[in-house]
Design goal:
The chain is mostly helical. It has helices at 15-23, 52-79, 86-103, 106-114, 122-155, 160-163, 166-191, 209-213, 221-254, 259-287, 296-320, 323-341; strands spanning 28-31, 34-37, 39-42, 119-121, 201-202.
Length: 342
């Protein structure tokens, strides 16, 4: 009988034994001399058993802060007509995406910090990977669209309203989401055509790509090469577009004669540069490494950065470093205070 949340290699099991196993709701299906996993077990933070209640409080606080911060940004932009510009249209998309992104991982992680048996079915694992990977690639493309917006605003200010009209912004946003859905749906579907067997223990706290691929009971060098190529193409291409945009932006800013003008132009990009650095720093480190370079400890550490820390920092970056957002927040706060007094 397979242990809960995992699966074991089996010998030649008699038909009666197989029927009894299936009737009893076993979590592995035998194929030949090997049983295939239908459930996985997360190792996650099991080695930190005594700290799990503390981790639960920390991650729950971070999650609520992230959700509240991004909802605040969306509300501020929605309720402030002066912020109805292309840059803030993309920022609303980014905030919504970040809320979905962190929700695809953290609630399940919080539950697993409180329970002893940290299992997930293969189907639910696939669903989590679909959602997480689609949102991750969409964010790559959306950050590239935001960089293009800044490029047009600084390098072609006279044509900005023409080049970044609402239809163009909508097309860029739709293209970002479409790329994420199509590419990552295909990749995740391909991953879950692999047979999974062995212990069924995922050395991670969610269904990330490489920890799951390691559970495949077939050789996966060709799969890894294709996944690496997809990562290079669809992570590096938006990254290169961002770099090209900022090279042109930097050249344009350096040509501005006044120091005040240069500072003002750069300030419109600084928040985006910080977000890109945080997001791509961890993404490139995680997904552009060969399989042999991955270790459970580094995978979990970098995953915490891009699933928990970065989404929590983005609202802070865009509020503390953005003059227009801060002014909109102050106006709404003053308005609310005035209403309460009257």
């Amino acid at each position: 009988m397979a242990e809960r949340g995992g699966c074991k290699a089996g010998g030649n099991i008699a038909l009666a034994s197989l029927i009894a196993q299936l009737m009893s709701g076993s979590e592995s299906i035998v194929s030949g001399n090997q049983s295939l996993c239908t459930h996985f077990t997360f190792v996650g933070f099991s080695s930190l058993a005594e700290l799990q209640p503390v981790l639960f409080i920390v991650f729950l606080t971070t999650y609520l802060f992230t959700m509240g911060g991004n909802l605040l940004i969306i509300g501020l932009i929605w309720g402030t007509p002066s912020l109805h510009t292309p840059m803030y249209f993309f920022l609303v998309n980014l905030s919504f995406l970040e809320m979905c992104y962190i929700t695809s991982v953290v609630p399940q992680m919080l539950v697993h910090l409180l329970v002893e048996i940290k299992t997930i079915s293969v189907g639910r694992c696939a669903t989590q990977m679909y959602v997480f990977s689609i949102l991750g690639l969409t964010e790559c493309c959306l950050l590239a669209a935001m960089a293009y917006d800044r490029f047009v605003a600084i390098c072609h200010p006279l044509h900005y309203s023409l080049l970044m009209d609402p239809r163009v912004c909508l097309k860029l946003a739709v293209a970002s989401w479409t790329t994420g859905v199509v590419v990552e749906s295909a990749q995740t579907t391909w991953i879950f055509t692999l047979p999974f067997c062995g212990t069924g223990r995922i050395q991670h706290f969610f269904c990330d790509i490489m920890p799951v691929v390691k559970l495949a009971c077939v050789d996966t060098p060709h799969n890894e090469i294709v996944m690496f190529a997809i990562s290079v193409l669809f992570i590096m291409t938006p990254c290169l577009l961002i770099l090209c945009s900022y090279v042109r932006i930097l050249v344009t800013i350096l040509r501005i004669p006044s120091a005040t003008g240069r500072s003002k132009a750069f300030s419109t990009c600084s928040s985006h540069i910080l977000v890109v650095s945080l997001f791509y720093g961890t993404a490139l480190f995680t997904y552009l490494q060969p399989k042999a370079a991955h270790s459970p400890e580094t995978d979990k550490a970098t995953a915490l950065m891009y699933t928990v820390v970065t989404p929590a920092l983005n609202p802070v970056i865009y509020t503390l470093r953005n003059k227009e957002v801060k002014e909109a927040f102050q106006r709404i706060t003053l308005r609310s205070t005035h209403r309460q007094m009257t």
